[in-house]
Amino acid sequence: MFRKPITAEPLNEETPLAALSQAITPTPLVYARNHFAIPHLSADTWRLRIGGAVAHPLTLTLADVQALPNVTQRVVLECAGNGRLAIQPPPPGTPWGWGAISVTEVTGTPLRHVLAQVGVAETAVEVLFIAADKGQLEPTTPTIAYARSLPIATAMLDEVWLVWALNGEPLPTAHGYPLRLMVAGWYGMAAVKWLSEIQVLEEPFGGFFQRDDYIYRGDDEAAEGEPVRHIRVRSLIASPSDGAQVGLEPLIVRGAAWSGDGVITRVELSADGGQSWHTAELEPATHPHAAQRWQWVWFPPRAGQYTLWARAWDASGRTQPTAARWNAQGYGNNGVQSVRVVVNEQ
Ligand SMILES: Nc1nc2c(c(=O)[nH]1)N[C@H]1C(S)=C(S)[C@@H](COP(=O)(O)O)O[C@H]1N2
Ligand SMILES: [Mo]
């Protein structure tokens, strides 16, 4: 299996959907999503500066960060643009099919340990994360770094980590070496890679990737101008693959489902355009931030062409629309995926 190339510069590549039938996505198959060229940093010279509205600004080495209490968690990372290609006509943005999603085991320290060391001012409203990758949005515009903020209350949650390991190994260069942020349950834009500076802010951050990008406009489930945050409930079919040819015999349909608003409570499949839905066998939610795998045995009634649909429900009662969800930048489209299957007599 390989990652599927989407764009070369900057590097954007999808996880093959077949990999979602495994509990953990193997590191070489983890999708890569970049806005700029990938920076190559050395842990020896790298430092994390923490300043702004704090009592004691700090500069930490990687060893300093790794000396803090650490946790290993299984997490879904999904790009907010995942599924954009299914919106017709596709809105502007990286043309992602369905593979901008991975499930990995990350090791890091809750951010609040670092914030406790610097002493956050009572006037703080946000925490800003500035990365080492930089570039121009247009040939005539200034060079900017990738940077995103979190509300101060979010930054203090146990589910926000400074992460240095992926699947038990140091972060690969493409995934943020030596240190990245991980915000469980939020779309991937929040998981700032190649962290170089953390600033505690007394005013909300107005940078491009905060105020202009990653905003819902014209979305029927979000307020106008609402920031993109929690991952919308989604289920994807890992096998069969789209266009598969199968025999006229029982077929095990496998996939995974996840949500940023609660664990998955049910997955249903349809092979007849939504006329009938069948409940899949669902893995229990033993890792609350990971995906849950499911399977369903389909008995094709006769030879022919079929389209398989899967939809998930989460503990908050949310589910997926059968049609693609439109908004101006194509974020959070959790409309059901269609997988075409040809059933042959033999
Ligand atoms: N510094 C930096 N961090 C970043 C990005 C980026 O371009 N630069 N892309 C973000 C987006 S949109 C996503 S979906 C995830 C992808 O993480 P991955 O490439 O490790 O899968 O990283 C996020 N963090
Ligand atoms: Mo993303």
Give a description of the structure:
The protein is 6% helix and 37% strand. The chain is mainly beta. It has a five-stranded mixed sheet with strand order 4-3-12-7-8. The longest helix has 8 residues, at 111-118. The chain is elongated. The two termini are 27 Å apart. The protein binds ligand MTE and molybdenum atom. Molybdenum atom (MO) binds next to loops. Ligand MTE binds next to strand 7.
Write the layout of secondary structure elements.
Elements: E1 4-7, E2 12-14, E3 48-52, E4 58-60, H1 62-66, E5 71-78, E6 101-110, H2 111-118, E7 126-136, E8 143-151, H3 152-155, E9 160-166, E10 169-170, E11 180-183, E12 195-201, H4 208-211, E13 234-239, E14 244-247, E15 251-258, E16 264-270, E17 278-279, E18 281-282, E19 292-298, E20 304-314, E21 338-344
Parallel strand pairs: 3-12, 14-21
Antiparallel strand pairs: 1-2, 3-4, 5-6, 6-9, 7-8, 7-12, 9-10, 9-11, 13-15, 15-19, 16-17, 16-20, 18-19, 20-21
The ligand Nc1nc2c(c(=O)[nH]1)N[C@H]1C(S)=C(S)[C@@H](COP(=O)(O)O)O[C@H]1N2 binds at residues 30-35, 77, 79, 131, 133, 146, 175, 188-189, 191-194.
Question: What descriptive keywords fit this protein?
Answer:
346 residues, 21 strands, elongated, single chain, binds ligand MTE
Q: What is the CATH domain class of the largest domain?
A: Alpha Beta
Which fold name corresponds to the CATH topology of the largest domain?
Answer: Sulfite Oxidase, Chain A, domain 2
- Overall morphology: elongated
Main sheet makeup: 5 strands, mixed
Superfamily at the CATH H level of the largest domain?
Oxidoreductase, molybdopterin-binding domain
What is the H-and-E element order?
EEEEHEEHEEHEEEEHEEEEEEEEE
Structural class: mainly beta
The overall pLDDT, averaged over residues, is 97
Bound molecules: the ligand Nc1nc2c(c(=O)[nH]1)N[C@H]1C(S)=C(S)[C@@H](COP(=O)(O)O)O[C@H]1N2, molybdenum atom
